[in-house]
Write a structure and sequence with these properties.
Elements: H1 2-24, H2 30-42, H3 46-59, H4 63-75, H5 79-87, H6 96-109, H7 113-120, H8 131-144, H9 153-158, H10 165-176, H11 183-192, H12 196-200, H13 204-226, H14 230-276, H15 284-288
Helix pairs in contact: 2-3, 3-4, 4-5, 5-6, 6-7, 7-8, 8-14, 11-14, 13-14
Length: about 290
Amino acid sequence: MRFYRFFFLLLILAAVVRGQSKAVNPLFSVPNRVKFASHLYKTGDYIRAFDEYRALLTGTPDDTLRLAAGLALRNLGRFDEAEDYLQGLFFFSRLKDYAKTEFLKTEFIRGNYSGFVNLSGESFYSPDTFSVGIKRLKYFTYLILQETEITDSAEFVSGFAESQRRVISKFYSVKKRPERKDELLAAVLSAVIPGAGKIYTEDYSDGIVAFIFSGLFYGLAAHNFAVAKNAKGALFAGIGLFFHAGSVYGSATSAQIYNAQKRFEFESKLIEYAEKEKYFLPDTEKLFIK
């Protein structure tokens, strides 16, 4: 009899525990976990957000969660994995157009500009739904690609929204007439006047130093030659020539550095503007991560 009483007490206890667990479980329900993952994403905690999305996907296959997981991976710089997640939505998914567009956007973000241009020209990767935005991003990519010729200004700029055309027109002008220094001219200037090439490339401190040191040793050489101290004169002339030759070579290098810096600054401004304009494409994060 005591055994039966003990058995019934266990059943009652199990029922109570089960009831309590049911009362707690809603906190860990799928909708609440999705909200938590979205919160993590919006606060920039992409690692934990992706972990949540991945865990949810093991028990709840969902296209929106898969898309969100891909975006989280992209924000982490894990581009190959991000594209794998996005490609999983290319077929039989209501979000396939968004997935393909985000795939193209990922190619741009990872710096594979040629790859983006090539893929954007394929109908499979370029859904008609977002063809206008994809075309704008493709045109914009031509501003980054150094070896790519672009159409005349009016045709190029007209492809963008009215609110974007003023900025795009400025970028177009810089692309067509980049601010750069001629390497040969910089070298020739320094060959004529030590340090002049460095001044031309706006490396003023090095230019002044090259001029002073070369001039100083050339002056000492001239003085010693004038008083028949030819050995010292030759020594100082050699040192002056060394600084002079270094100035010539350094001026050509300085022009290269100047041009590379200007190119980097231009690309940085382009990428910053593309980010500001959401890459001219739908803001998928805002639409699906809530």
